[in-house]
Design a protein that fits this description.
Distance between the termini of chain B: 26 Å
Shape of chain A: globular
CATH architecture of chain B: 3-Layer(aba) Sandwich
Number of helices of chain B: 8
Radius of gyration of chain B: 16 Å
Mean pLDDT of chain A: 97
CATH topology of the largest domain in chain A: Rossmann fold
CATH architecture of the largest domain in chain A: 3-Layer(aba) Sandwich
Strand order of the largest sheet of chain B: 2-3-1-4-5-6
CATH superfamily of chain B: Pyruvate-ferredoxin oxidoreductase, PFOR, domain III
Strand order of the largest sheet of chain A: 3-2-4-5-7-6-12
Shape of chain B: globular
Structural class of chain A: alpha/beta
Largest sheet of chain A: 7 strands, mixed
Structural class of chain B: alpha/beta
Oligomer: heterodimer
Largest sheet of chain B: 6 strands, mixed
Helix content of chain A: 25-40%
Number of strands of chain B: 6
Strand content of chain B: 15-25%
Number of helices of chain A: 22
CATH superfamily of the largest domain in chain A: Thiamin diphosphate (ThDP)-binding fold, Pyr/PP domains
Radius of gyration of chain A: 26 Å
Helix content of chain B: 25-40%
Order of helices and strands of chain B: EHEEEHEHHEHHHH
Low-confidence stretches of chain A: none
CATH class of the largest domain in chain A: Alpha Beta
Number of domains of chain B: 1
Number of domains of chain A: 4
CATH topology of chain B: Pyruvate-ferredoxin Oxidoreductase, domain 3
Largest interface: A-B, 63 and 63 residues
Distance between the termini of chain A: 52 Å
Number of strands of chain A: 23
Chain lengths: 575, 191
């Protein structure tokens, strides 16, 4: 029987079946589950690396050693791994090397909406693009074959609706792949200018061969329903187009989005009276058509922002809209919030209270930017909190240094915060960094990292001591404070901002959602004592709200962290 | 069979992923082509979340747009109101009467909408409102609200109860199975 599988789970199954032996990744929504799932197979060695660059380099090394190897990341992670990618394109591989990159059109859980196909084009690396779970499995396996046949890394690009949708998958047995012997070959693998010049020629020749392959590849598939409308599409957009247009259109479904075939596009266009290019994000298939002199319409109709769906396509191309009754009144929005008992809450409450400029970073704690805490001034990318505040402070000097902090999670600090801290120490800015150490990689759903003492499989592992690490790069003032104890944390923040040297505060308390974390009994509000001052509401805790004019704690959410109790001036909060 | 569409909506952390897995398992047992679409990551942190479940002979898009849904299962009243506009005319909505204030209500920037169930009925929808939280606590855990609602929905779909029982056995960890079976039975008894 077929099994219902998440795209990511099917992807992992495809890696397993194709004989993958090595996986190294950094978590990032919507790519994370591929690596979590592949780690469940004993035949595959799998690890969380500190960041995507390290992951891809490790996978490249494993490929050189002769193993089918893999690295997964989200779209912005590929920016971090771009350095090894662009040169691995020159060296090629030994064992097959497959890279999964998951884009996030609509930005369900991302800071930008970049289209990763640009990286494939720029690095001249082939890219495959599945449209459902079965294709995730099949394309993962095909990517390994292509990688070895054409001697190149191969990227498989998914998007949120492919990675996080479930559909039926046919399972097969694993095909064990023997290690391919490593043969020393500096002309191929040592990328100094004299060798790299020769390899660039190889890359261009390979690209021509890949274009020839793309002309007849089974994954670039034509569906001819004898319709006048033609649609060229890829990935999730293919599913939306099929849903909206059914057999009222012919389709050219592109499964290999880099490099693109030429004659196939020309031949398909010749069959259609009107040609539409339906693709999410940027107009890459469309630009290819136009470069070939093929008349078509795409981005002028659909734009390049957000996700597509069947309703948009049906309306724009067929003028068809469905009848639906809207709810009769305006409703309040429900943005994501820090959970009840989140250890980050106390820190952001204090930063807001003292009107401190906060250089933010990527993780659950980015939610500190939301009302009512609103304690964040900027957030750019992984690690930028630390490095950007250094630059800010260098320009504004003491005025800023005593009123600003960088906040960064434990996993993000290991990913790329540490290099920024080295810069603070080396180039001497009086910058204060708060490491929000909740002992886990939170937002992506609880992955281990080098500071947690456990590896991807949950086994004991070496544990990076954040205090020692910060001291080792030259920070003399490193202190640990408990964010559940507001007074202790407040003292740490005010003292470290006042001193005339860089400092690190480690706010240490595990994520309240971790299974091993013991919760206290939920708190309750004594309505007799509550004066409705709404002080507790300033915490932005989802468990606290006003009911009948008095503050009220939802016992199903409260984990008894006690921060609200510390704030209440009337002793109205207790067990 | 024409594609049918079910949405499971609620607040991040309420257990919509388990509910969609149970439903997907049931539909796959029935031999349908099934697609589910979930959103992980940031919106799971207390935001408005929606899971799409589609089934039929051939399912393409995994998402459900305005006017396409046959059934909505909602874990929270405001979320029922938020997504009700996705239902086909006369579609069914099964909602828990639990309310969770969103942050704009907590901060006082907005107020929680009143008389949601009556207004949903005013939209000419088939509305079933259930105190799923109370039934779940009766079964042994507030966390089983999702399975209580699955029990209610099972009465709205023409699928044999044994199929649902089998899905529960395959989707729920064994140590919580008895409690969830009780929750399911309490939900089924509502209609």
């Amino acid at each position: 029987m077929k099994k219902l599988m998440l795209g990511n789970e099917a992807f992992a199954r495809g890696l397993f079946e194709a004989g993958c032996r090595f996986a190294s990744s950094y978590p990032g929504t919507p790519s994370t589950e591929i690596t979590e799932e592949v780690a469940k197979f004993n035949e595959v060695y799998a690890e969380w690396a500190p960041n995507e660059k390290v992951a891809l380099e490790a996978a490249l090394g494993a490929s050189l050693a002769g193993a089918r190897s893999f690295a997964a990341m989200k779209h912005v992670g590929l920016n971090v791994a771009a350095d090894p990618l662009y040169t691995a394109a020159y060296t090629g591989v030994n064992g097959g090397l497959v890279i999964a990159v998951a884009d996030d059109p609509g930005m369900h859980s991302s800071q930008n909406e970049q289209d990763s196909r640009h990286h494939a084009i720029a690095s001249k690396v082939p890219m495959l693009e599945p449209a459902d779970s079965q294709e995730c499995k099949d394309f993962a396996a095909l990517a390994f074959s292509l990688s070895e046949e054409f001697d190149t890394p191969v990227i498989v690009r998914t998007s949120t609706r492919v990675a996080h949708s479930q559909s039926a998958v046919e399972l097969c047995e694993r095909q064990e792949q023997p290690l391919r012997p490593y043969v020393k070959n500096p002309a191929k693998y040592v990328m100094m200018p004299s060798n790299a010049k020769g390899r660039h020629v190889v890359v261009e020749e390979r690209n021509e061969k890949l274009i020839a392959y793309a002309e007849t590849a089974a994954i670039n598939r034509m569906e001819d329903y004898g319709a006048e409308i033609g649609v060229i599409t890829c990935g999730a957009a293919y599913q939306y187009a099929k849903d909206a247009l059914g057999d009222q259109a012919n389709y050219l479904k592109i499964g290999m989005t880099n490099p693109l075939p030429k004659q196939l596009f020309v031949d398909f266009a010749a069959k259609c009276k009107t040609l539409y290019i339906i693709e999410e994000l940027d107009g890459i298939l469309e630009a290819h058509c136009k470069a070939l002199g093929i008349a078509c319409k795409g981005k002028e109709i659909f734009g390049c922002i957000g996700e597509l769906n069947q309703a948009i396509i049906a309306e724009k191309l067929l003028g068809r809209t469905l009848t639906a009754t809207p709810y009769p009144e305006q409703l309040p929005v429900r943005p994501p919030v820090m959970c009840a008992g989140c250890p980050h809450r106390g820190v952001f409450y204090l930063l807001a209270k003292h009107k401190i400029t906060v250089s933010g970073d990527i993780g659950c704690y980015t939610l500190g930017a939301a009302a009512p805490l609103a304690a964040m001034d900027w957030t750019i990318c992984m690690g930028a909190s630390v490095s950007a505040l250094h630059g800010y402070n260098k320009v504004l000097g003491a005025d800023s240094e005593q009123k600003s902090v960088a906040v960064i999670g434990d996993s993000t600090f290991m990913h790329s915060g540490i290099t920024g801290l080295v810069n603070i120490s080396y180039n001497a800015s009086n910058t204060t960094v708060i490491i929000l150490d909740n002992s886990i990689t939170g937002m992506t759903g609880h992955q281990q990292n080098p500071t947690t003492g456990k590896n991807l499989k949950g086994d004991p592992a070496a544990k990076v001591c954040l205090e020692d690490l910060c001291r080792a790069v030259g920070i003399r003032r490193v202190r640990v404070a408990d964010p559940y104890h507001l007074a202790e944390m407040e003292q740490a923040i005010t003292e470290e901002l006042a001193v005339n040297e860089p400092s690190v505060i480690i706010s240490r308390r595990p994520c309240a959602l971790l299974k091993h974390v013991k919760h206290n009994a939920p708190l309750a509000i004594d309505a007799e004592k509550c004066r409705s001052c709404k002080m507790c509401l300033k915490l932005g805790c989802p468990a606290i709200s006003m009911k009948n004019g008095k503050a009220c704690i939802d016992h199903t959410q409260c984990v008894g962290c006690g921060i609200c109790k510390e704030l209440c001036k009337f002793d109205a909060i207790g067990q | 069979m024409e594609t049918k569409s079910i949405m499971i909506v609620g607040v991040g952390g309420q257990g919509s992923l388990l509910a969609s897995r149970i439903l997907g398992n049931v539909l796959l047992q029935q031999g349908y082509e099934v697609k589910l679409s979930e959103v992980h990551g940031m919106s799971q942190r207390g935001g408005s979340v929606v899971t799409y479940v589609k089934y039929g002979d051939a399912v393409h898009s995994p998402t459900i747009e305005k006017g396409e849904a046959d059934i909505i299962i909602s874990f929270e009243l405001l979320e029922a109101a938020r997504w009700a506009g996705c239902l086909k005319p006369g579609g069914s909505i099964v909602t828990s009467t639990q309310t969770l204030d969103p942050m704009p209500v907590i901060t006082g920037a907005a107020s929680y909408p009143q008389e949601i169930v009556a207004k949903l009925k005013g939209m000419q929808l088939d509305v079933t409102a259930v105190d799923a939280l109370a039934l779940a606590e009766q079964a042994g855990s507030a966390k089983a609200s999702n399975v209580v609602l699955m029990g209610v929905v099972s009465k709205k779909m023409e699928i044999d109860e044994t199929v649902w029982q089998k899905a529960l056995e395959q989707c729920v960890p064994s140590k919580f199975l008895d409690m969830n079976k009780t929750a399911f039975a309490l939900g089924r008894a509502v209609l």
